[in-house]
Amino acid sequence: MPNRTPAQVNDHVNVQVQVSFPVNIEAAFRAQATRTVAFLVKHRARAYAKHPMMLETISPGLAAAAPETVIAMAKQQIETERQAPRRWFGFGGEVPILKAKAVLLFACARRRSLARGGQPMSAACS
């Protein structure tokens, strides 16, 4: 391999990509963010269903609470997070609301399961 200058080695970095169809980057990012949030919330809700004691990390006594109580707490926590000032730096700003949405999803599924006369979610998911 012949000796090349740094400019010659990195010349592929400065290449502009030509796209023949209109691309809305903002819409693409928003769609991917929506899919990612849905995946994270469902994944966390399934984890709560398998191990309800994980709910104790959010609020003590939540694992043994009735689904209506859990739903009310999750809705209140979501509203609290929406009212909180936004941080635009660092990590962790989005985690509490994702957990609250996952708790809400889990509690709604648990209420639906109990209303149908089924077994509690923790037994159904084991």
Description:
This protein is mostly helical. The protein has one domain (18-125). The protein contains five helices and no strands. It has helices at residues 6-9, 25-50, 67-83, 95-115, 121-125. α2 (25-50) crosses α4. It is elongated, with a radius of gyration of 23 Å. The N and C termini lie far apart (59 Å).
Biggest sheet architecture: none
* Shape field: elongated
- Tell how many strands the DSSP assignment holds: 0
Tally of helical segments: 5
Mean of residue pLDDT? Answer: 81
Low-confidence stretches: none
Note the gap between the termini.
59 Å
Radius of gyration: 23 Å
As a percent range, the share of helical residues equals: 55-70%
What is the number of domains? 1
Could you spell the SSE succession in H and E letters? Answer: HHHHH
Instruction: Find the structural class using helix and strand composition.
Output: mainly alpha
Core attributes:
126 residues, mainly alpha, 5 helices, 58% helix, elongated
Secondary structure elements and pairings:
Blueprint: H1 6-9, H2 25-50, H3 67-83, H4 95-115, H5 121-125
Please outline what is shown here.
This protein has five helices and no strands.
